[in-house]
Amino acid sequence: MNHFTPVSALLGGALIGTAALLSWLLLGRVAGISGILAGAARTEGAERHWRLAFLGGLVVAPVAYALLGGTLPVPEVTRNPAMLVVAGLLVGFGTRMGSGCTSGHGVCGLARLSPRSMAATGVFMASAMATVFVTRHVLGLQ
Amino acid sequence: MVMLAAALAGLVFGLGLVVSAMVDPAKVLGFLDLAGDWDPSLILVMAGAIPVAALGFALGRKRDRPLLAPDFQAPGADRVDRRLLRGAALFGAGWGLAGYCPGPALAGLALGAWQTWAFTAAMLVGMAAHEAWQSSR
């Protein structure tokens, strides 16, 4: 089913961009979620505290949205548990090895015109699209 | 102030993921599925985010330091190497397998789907595995 939602996508995107702008101008940090998450486990003191505060804000966002009167999206998960676990392992390992994810490379890196982020974004988009093609159209999974 | 600013940035980021419905893996898979009933929403999320983020980086260039921290800490590396590309390929495979990437997984935890929690737990294990692999080399 196609549920193209251009307005909420642009609006949500502008909020994500605003968060990246705030991180940079206030804290001098790139808003890359995988890096902030991994860093929260690795660092200590003030370096750890701002990361935990950022992650806390990220995690409570749906609660805040509901309190503001918004209607929360209902996640629709079609992939089985084994696939989710393998996916999690790949995403965790791959984002560390590749120094970033959709936020750090795909939003902040592209906004900074970083050649590394352009290359990484091209590769992970292609890899993800190929994986979806194989799982959906070759293996017949949803 | 730093903590407040960081929490605010995280909150706004999460609100963006909720508003755009990127916390729904079906929405993300719909974008990644070029051969199916393609949903271009995710590209508009990026199109909405990148110009605003770029404005932030442009404004930052006019300043010596951020408002609440001693210096700007841009990622240092600038060379495209094999490690970057391999890591991105692995990440993409996982992203396409589940429809979750790190931001939406964390911002989606409170929505209560156990699958989001299972994915996130595995993701943390994957990150720890990379850490262990790095320090063993």
**DSSP strand (E) fraction of chain A?**
under 5%
Greatest contact between two chains = A-B, 113 and 118 residues
Number of helices of chain B: 6
Q: Rounded to an integer, what's the Rg of chain A over CA atoms?
A: 17 Å
Helix content of chain B: 55-70%
Please state the overall shape of chain A, judged from the principal axes of the Cα atoms: globular
Largest sheet of chain A: none
Chain-averaged pLDDT of chain B: 96
Specify the biggest β-sheet of chain B: none
Order of helices and strands of chain B: HHHHHH
- List low-pLDDT spans of chain A: none
Average pLDDT of chain A: 95
In short:
By secondary structure, chain A is mostly helical.
Please provide a written account of the structure.
The complex is a heterodimer of chains A (142) and B (137). Chain A has 142 residues and is an all-alpha fold. Chain A has helices at 6-27, 33-42, 46-67, 81-97, 102-111, 115-138. Chain A has a domain at 77-142. In chain A, 74% of the residues lie in helices and 0% in strands. In chain A, helix 2 crosses helix 3 (46-67). The model of chain A has no long low-confidence stretch (mean pLDDT 95). Chain B is an all-alpha fold and 137 residues long. Chain B has one domain (2-74, 81-136). In chain B, helix 1 (2-19) crosses helix 5 and helix 5 packs across helix 6 (114-136). Chain B has helices spanning 2-19, 25-32, 41-61, 82-98, 102-108, 114-136. The longest helix of chain B has 23 residues, at 114-136. The interface between A and B is large, with 113 and 118 residues.
How is this fold's topology laid out?
The complex is a heterodimer of chains A (142) and B (137).
Chain A: H1 6-27, H2 33-42, H3 46-67, H4 81-97, H5 102-111, H6 115-138
Helix pairs in contact in A: 2-3, 5-6
Chain B: H1 2-19, H2 25-32, H3 41-61, H4 82-98, H5 102-108, H6 114-136
